[in-house]
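Hi support team,

I submitted a single chain yesterday and got back a structure, but I'm not sure I'm reading the token output correctly. Could someone confirm the output below corresponds to the sequence I sent? I've pasted both exactly as they appear in my results page.

Thanks,
R.
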Amino acid sequence: MPKIDIAASEEQNNTGYPEPFRALVAGRFRKRLGDAGGLTQFGVNLCRLAPGSASSQRHWHEKEDEFVFIVDGELVLIEDEGETILRAGDAAAWKAGTQNGHHLVNRSDRDALVLEIGSRYWNDSDAYFDNYMKFEMSDEVTIYIHKNGTLYPAR
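Hi R., thanks for writing in. Yes, this is the structure output for that exact sequence:
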């Protein structure tokens, strides 16, 4: 098994979210460890969330399983049922198709590290709960759609 040089892995700070939804994840930085290892069936990211940032808009996936493990720091897991504090050593998981809008928010005063693992199911759709947006993915192309069915401009 080849060792992945995590320290040398590029930290990416990008999002496909249309405006005005980009600001929430401006402090999200990911090292795509699954890509570095050549994985194709599931993704693995080491995600650093700066204070005040979130992992994503609050969402759920129709076809993709998700798992997170808190490596360092403290985050607030926000779901339909409310809020839960997650600290280093805690984990959370969401089964595909479970309509429970969720995301992680860093309300602390220091960075937090999260290991993110998820299916790479490219023909997926998703609903964003707090902003009436959804996305659809196919052939590695993602489109964002307003609640009324019109498309957000492509980035």
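A quick pointer for reading it: The longest helix spans residues 33-36. Let us know if anything else looks off.

Best,
Support desk
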